[in-house]
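Example 3.
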Amino acid sequence: MNDPVKDQAAVPEGRPILSLRGVSKNFGAVAALTEVDLDVAPGEVVAVVGDNGAGKSTLVKVLAGVHRPDAGTLTFADREVTVTSPADAHALGIATVFQDLALCENLNVVQNLFLGRELRRARLDEVTMEIRSWELLRQLSAKIPTVRVPVASLSGGQRQTVAIARTLLGDPRVIVLDEPTAALGVAQTAEVLNLIERLRERGLGVIMISHNMEDVRAVADRVVVLRLGRNNGVFDAEAPTEEIVAAMIGASDNVVSRRAGRARSVKGEA
Amino acid sequence: MADVRAAETPAPLDLLDERLRRGDGWRAVAGGLWQRVRSGDLGALPIVLGLVVIWTVFQSLNSVFLSSANLVNLLMESASVGIIALGVVCVLLVGQIDLSVGSVSGLSAALTAVTFVTHGWPLLLSMAAALGAGALVGVVYAQMVTRLGVPSFVATLAGLLSFLGIQLWLLGDTGAINLPFESDLVHFAQLAFLPEWLSYVLVVVAAGWLFATGYGLARTRRAAGLSARSTSLLVARSTAVLLGLGFAVWYLNRARGVGWLFVSFVALVLVLHYALTRTGWGRSVFAVGGNAEAARRAGINVRRVYTSVFVLCSTLAALGGMIAAARLAAANQATGAGDVNLNAIAAAVIGGTSLFGGRGSAFSALLGILVIQSISNGLTLLDLDSSFRFIITGLVLALAVTLDSVARRSRVAHGRAA
């Protein structure tokens, strides 16, 4: 594994590696995204949250090169770029882990990690691939006991780890994670959140789509709220949950804020 | 004492996790195998047991069955459908099917006979033309499946009828063309046997090669800090192969010996096994069979994988048909007809290749055809006609597929790949 930041155009400290400005995407009469802005810097975890239909999935697909935006600009490493295909995104160094993970269950961990980029295709170099898999998994502190078992026998968190580790083999600079903790239990969620910390330590920009506020607050540096396809505020991770939820659903009168209000008033009386 | 040593030598890189139950030596190997069988990862076990049962039954009914002469015959007869089954294995691995392998083999036999006998082409040119026609059939199927989205089931069913029609048309009014006995093809398929010394040399080479590759791999793995098979285990495996194959060859040499035809079939199996397990192409075949969408997103050209597999299958079917004609010294309307189609598919499935894609091996064609051919041969020896052969082969197929489904459920329950 090379250091992902090495031998690539360095980005000054704190400057975003990837910036979206005024990105819009329409599907017929439906405006899925309207003038959305988004920045992510190296070593920063940005959470994108929003209610159903807020445009999160469309945003992921724009970043992955599946959808081409109708308007707006993408700036990657201070260079304006167009991403028209998944291959473009890949070549730039934007890796996306979709919610379905896209793993082959009948293949083992090493085979999945190196799928499509095997070493020595005429006579596979299994030993080197296995060693590099172990190195990578160790760097990520992944809890996978053996890499010679089919992915079918791994837990959801372990599969998520394999899917993320696989994108790292391509030396990306930005990783987009679509609902990485959606289907996971408590321990597995913690495992994946740890992994996201590791990605940050490696200097990658991480964009994490989620609607679990607890997970978002655990790892995110900034929280970008989308509502009905538009930016609806940027919060830092310390912001109260009810404020973020209010921005997500566009009202301050909801069950979360009411309960928080009650809790505060109870505390005040005591 | 043993504990102290284990603490001093660092554990291999791939066995560091504390949750792994570690063990060395024979007991661990046996325990691991038993664990796999219990979880439904049966491998070749059911088929080997099945063969033992079938052979015992037929031998008790007719003492000729296990004679050297009959076994030589059995092996020679299994080559043509076995080669066709090899292609079927590849198609099944990507989760598709080719129902027309029988017709394509018949077409290839007819094409070889017409060009070689009627038109007097050189033998190699006739054979190349027939193989080329087979490859072309595969290209057409692949285009229909990948570009037009026709299910392979339907595309190849249509092919089954069409190519049978072309075969009948090619053979003309007489319906049969005899191949001259003195031609190299017929000689190869009927009369060419390995000299006794060469058959033993091949056995030694096979066992030695198995050990050498296993030892080489173990050494690289150990040098890289990974766990590896112990040398004593490798020696034992090679010795078992040496003795097993040695005995088989000795027994066959009591009669006519080992045919070049059968050796060529086994060589094809080995080549395909290598291609499926040790090359990037083989890896992509398994990936497409497991999850085509994931394979596509990993940058694999899924359409090209499908095409390669369909072409390989039809070409091997064409080769098998040629050999069937050579065995008979004639191409006729029955070549590739009747049960050839289903026998080839049944052989692949009985041998352990999953109908659901992504699971199987080249060896399943070899093992499966041995089962099918044993049943067919045994029933012929008992003077039972084809009605019984169909019934019993059908039952064995049903049994094999049922076993596969049950084992599949067990594998899922034990967290192994379905």
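Chain B touches chain A at residues 13-15, 17, 19-20, 217, 220-221, 224-226, 278-281, 283-284, 286-287, 289-291, 293-295, 297-300, 358-359, 412, 414-418 (CB under 8 Å). Chain B has two domains: 45-192+259-413, 193-258.
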